[in-house]
Every structure is written in structure tokens, then in C-alpha cells.
Amino acid sequence: MTERIDFTKGHGTENDFVVLDDPDGALELDAATVVALCDRRAGIGGDGVIRAVRSRSAGIDVPADAPEWFMDYRNADGSVAEMCGNGVRVLAAHLQRAGHVDGDGFALLTRAGTRTVEILERPDTPGAAWTVRVGMGRSRTAPGARTVEIAGHRLEATDVDMGNPHAVAFLPGGVRLEELDLTRRPALDPDPVDGTNIELVSERGPRHVAMRVHERGVGETRSCGTGVAAVAVAAAHRAGDESGQPWTVDVPGGRLRVGWTAQGEVTLAGPARLVADGTTLI
């Protein structure tokens, strides 16, 4: 049976999503539907689908003090993902614009736990960028956990857990980030059973790096918010930087800033754009 579904298309540094507004949990979002929605030729197109649903209506176990809204995030291949840093910013903008939340600061429930968001700047015109800062939680790192093979080099990678998994590798001098072939997933050794996101990084200056990412369940994307946070964590660790000062991370789709609170929580700040609203048949 065909169903008419309203959607919003949004992106954070060109990491793009189909947002479905489902406050009462009425949608049955299976993998095939997600794949169809994310298809860039036959569907709307996106790196993933975000279902905005109230936590109590999401069909999941929630703690007694859970935030009102849950981010149900799916990768473009239909697989369920724990978190998406760019997606949280897009969802925050959507919830604000839709009138679902009040104030500039609120919390969202994700499969990686509760994430706090702060609206730093609202757009002056429709389609312009919101600026949103997300509390990404604490990171966990494991240097030298595995190796990544890319451009004829075997590079040591640092595993960084940002609620979802990342393998971060820094490129040696002479290897240009822009020239890497990421049409296929780089080989990992050992290869995690449940997969991981892979970030390749080049230094740009003091507390400034650039990265590209091959996302689990998607392929190369123009940005990855949790990946940006993971890269900044790994870069600070590699540089011996314990100052807590922010790092700048460039991605093909733009620029993001990663900081740390006094309590050691990682923060991610950057743009979110809501670029289209429409109705789709699924």
C-alpha cells in the first residue's frame, strides 16, 4: 500500500539527510524504505534517514528521565546507526522550526545516549544556515588498535569511540588527501566484526586538520560529525595537546569546530541547513 509521507531535506556540511516527522511513532520504517528514500536517482537522496519521534513512542526502552525527542537514525543502506553528529544538528534545526521544542538549549535521546544541543545562531532567511553546538559525550581511544591500507601505505590507526566506532589514520607527508581513492573501502587489519567509520587525516596548521571519511553503511560522504569529533580527539592526543582549546577540522563539505568542556565532554559546532520540504510516496 502506498503512503504519502511529508519529509524535510537537510544537511550539515553537505552530509545530507531525509528527515521524517513522526511524533507519535506511526511510521513503520524498514530497511527497504530507508534505501528507497536515500536513493539519489529513484528517491529523494541522502546519506541517511532521521526519524523525529517522541522517545515514549519510538518503540524502544527509555530511561525514566529520557528527553522528549529521540533521533532514530538509519544509514543509507538501511542499517541502524548509534549516532550522527551532523544529523543531530539538522534534527535540532528541524525540531526548532517545527515548534516541537522551546528555547535554544535542549536534549535529544540517541542510541548512543542523551546528547545536548544549543542553538547558537538562527537563519535570517529560509534555507540559510543554523549554527548548532552538540555535546557529543566523552570519547574513548585505543591508539594502534589496527592498520589502514591506503595509497600503497599501511598506516597505524587509532580507534575512537564517539558512541559509534571510528578508525583514524594520519597521512604521511607527500600523500595528498585530495587525491585518495575512496570509491572503495580501505582495508583494515584487524577488521572489526561490526564495521567502523574510517577517517584519513592531513595536518593543516596549529590545531587545524583536514579529513575525508568512508562511512560504515554509506561509503564516502562529504562530512561526518562524529568522525570530525573523533579526528580532533585523535589529533589532540597525537600532538600531546591537553589544553582543551578547540580544533578546526575541514571536510569536503565545509568546516567544523571541536572543543571540550571543563568536564571533558567533546563538543561539535557547525552549520545545519534545511533546504527543502515535500511529500513522498512510499
Concise summary:
This protein has two domains: 4-137 and 270-281, Diaminopimelate Epimerase, Chain A, domain 1 (Roll); 140-264, Diaminopimelate Epimerase, Chain A, domain 1, CATH 3.10.310. The protein is 13% helix and 46% strand.
Helix count equals: 3
Question: What percentage of amino acids are in beta strands?
Answer: over 45%
Sketch the topology as an H/E string, one letter per element.
EEHEEHEEEEEEEEEEHEEE
Structural class by SSE content: mainly beta
Uncertain runs:
none
CATH topology of the largest domain: Diaminopimelate Epimerase, Chain A, domain 1
Q: What is the gyration radius calculated from CA atoms?
A: 18 Å
Average pLDDT level: 96
Gross geometry: globular
| Main β sheet profile | 17 strands, mixed
The CATH class assignment of the largest domain is Alpha Beta
CATH architecture of the largest domain: Roll
